[in-house]
Amino acid sequence: MEAGEIGGALLFFLAAAAAVAAAVSVGAVDFSRPLAAGAPLGFRQAVSWLIGVLDGTSSAAADVYGAWVAVRAGVIAPVLQVTVWACMVMSVMLVVEAVYNSVVSLGVKAIGWRPEWRFKWEPLDGADEEKGRTHYPLVLVQIPMYNELEVYKLSIAAACELQWPKDRIVVQVLDDSTDPFIKNLVELECENWANKGVNIKYATRTNRKGFKAGALKKGMECDYARQSEYIAIFDADFQPEPDFLLRTVPFLVHNPEVALVQARWSFVNDTASLLTRVQKMFFDYHFKVEQEAGSATFAFFSFNGTAGVWRSVAIKEAGGWKDRTTVEDMDLAVRATLKGWKFVYVGDVRVKSELPSTYKAYCRQQFRWSSGGAHLFRKMAKDVLVAKDVSLLKKSYMLYSFFLVRRVIAPTAACILYNIILPVSVTIPELYLPVWGVAYIPTVLTIVTAIRHPKNLHIMPFWILFESVMTVRRMRAALTGLLELEGFNQWFVTKKVGNDLEDSEVPLLQKTRKRLRDRVNFPEIGFSVFLFLCASYNLAFHGTTSYYIYLYLQGLAFLLLGLNFTGTCSCCQ
C-alpha cells in the first residue's frame, strides 16, 4: 500500500471523528440517551437508540438545536448571502470577459485575420542569407537555465541551429546552476558548439539574485548584447524551429513601433497523461483566445517569458529587467506598453516545450504566475492610471480585463462560490443560490472554453473538475501576491523530464525516498473530506437542493490529486 493511501485513510478517519465530535457539541447528535443497563441488545433496540441519537429528542439537544437554527438564520445565512451576491457580480464580470475574448477570437478565425493585415511583414532582403548578409540585424539569443540536466542539450542545439547569418547572431547561455556537475556539462556543450563555428557565449553569475530576471539583466550588460538590435529568449526546455527568426524578426524590422513578437507554445508531452492533456486545454485557451484577442484589438498582451523576440531599445526604454515580482516577463510587457510600444502575437509560429509532468510541479508553476500577476497589479495599477502614452480605452482594458478580472476575480469567485459556499449551502436551507449563477454561468464558461478546440470535448469533464481544484491554489496565490503575504516572492523552477534521457553521457540522478508529506497533498485531501461530508449530508437530507453528485465528483478530484494521481495509465490516455 502506498504511503499516500495510508495518509489519506488516516486523515479521512480523523476528519470523520472531528465531524462526529462537532455534531455532538452542537446537539445534532445526542449520545446522552444510552441503552438500558443490563438489557439485551436487540436489533430493534439498537435502531431505536440510533434514531434517538440522530434526531436529538432530549430536551437539551432540542434547546441547542433551536439555538443553532436561530444563529444560522439570523447571522450565518445573511453573511453568506452577501458573499453569494458578491460572487454573482464577479461571475458576471468573468463571463462577460470570457465571451468578449471568445467572440474576438472566433471573428479573427472566421475572417482569416492575420497579423500581416495590421503590421507589415516582408522577408528580409536577399532570399539567400549569405548574399543578403548585410540586411540581417544582429540578434542575441538568450537561454537562461538553472540545473537543467534533462533538457540543456535540446535548447542549446535548437538555438545553435537557427537559420541566420553566423556573424549576425550570438547565442548566450545564462547558467545559474548550483550543481557543479551540471554546470560543467552545460559549459562543455557550449564549447562543442563553439568548435563547430557557432558564436556561442557561456555566462555565469556568483549568485542568483533576481533569479531569471537577474540573469537576463546581467546578460544584457555584455558588450555584444549592447550591440544587438533584437533579443530572442527561450527557456531551457524550448526548442524553436530553424526558421523561427526568419518568421518573427521581419515584424520588428518593418514596424518600428513594435517591441515584441510572441510565438505560440506547442508541447512534446501533451499526451503523456491526463494531467498534461488538461494542461494543454488551459494553454490552448490562453493562446488561441486571450493572446489572440489582445493582439488583434489593443496590440497588448502578456509576454510569456519565452518563445519571443524583443527590440532591445524597447527593453531599455521600459527600464530593463526587474526582479520585484515573480512575473518579470509580464512586468516588462506592461512597462513597455505604457511607453507606447505595441506587441504582435504570431500563432502560426510554434515553439516546442514541455508541460509539467507532476501535479506538484504544475502547482508551483501556477502559484508563481498567479501570485506574481496579482502582485504586479498592486505595483502597477497607479502607473497605468497616470500613463500619458496610452489611450483611456487601453488603460481600461489593462486594469479591468487584463489585471482585475483575470488575475484576481477569476480564481477568487470560482473558489469561494463552488468550493466553499455551494458545499456549505446544503446545510443552510435559508441560503439562496440563484440557478443562473451556479448553473448557467458555468455552462457558458465551459462552452467558450471548448469552442476553440472542439477536439478536446471528451476531456472537458476532467478539465472542469481539475480547474475546480486549481482555483483553491490560484486564489491562495493571488491573495498572497495582492496582500504581499509570506512567500509572495518565492521562485520555483519547474522540474523538467526531457526526451533525451537515454543519452549515456548524461547519467540520471539517483532517486531518493520521499517523505509522506512530499508524496501527499494534505490540503487537497482535507478538502476532499469536507466535500464528501457535505455531499453525504445533501444525499441524506437533500431538501430542495441536490448537489451531491457534483460534490462527490469534486471531492473525488480533490482526493486523486491529493494522492498525486496524474492519469498515466493507458485508460486515461
From TrEMBL:
GO biological process annotation, one example: cell wall organization
Protein name: glucomannan 4-beta-mannosyltransferase
UniProt EC number: 2.4.1.32
Family, similarity comment: Belongs to the glycosyltransferase 2 family. Plant cellulose synthase-like A subfamily.
Signal peptide range in chain numbering: 1-22
Keywords: Cell wall biogenesis/degradation, Glycosyltransferase, Golgi apparatus, Membrane, Signal, Transferase, Transmembrane, Transmembrane helix
All residue ranges annotated as the Glycosyltransferase 2-like domain in the record: 230-421
Membrane topology value: Multi-pass membrane protein
Function (record text): Probable mannan synthase which consists of a 4-beta-mannosyltransferase activity on mannan using GDP-mannose. The beta-1,4-mannan product is the backbone for galactomannan synthesis by galactomannan galactosyltransferase. Galactomannan is a noncellulosic polysaccharides of plant cell wall.
GO terms for cellular component: Golgi membrane
Membrane-traversing stretches: 75-96, 397-421, 433-451, 520-541, 547-567
InterPro entries registered for this protein in UniProt: Glyco_trans_2-like, Nucleotide-diphossugar_trans
Superkingdom to which the source organism belongs: Eukaryota
Source taxonomy: Eukaryota, Viridiplantae, Streptophyta, Embryophyta, Tracheophyta
An example Gene Ontology molecular-function term: mannan synthase activity
Main location: Golgi
Catalytic activity: GDP-mannose + (glucomannan)n = GDP + (glucomannan)n+1
Subcellular location: Golgi apparatus membrane
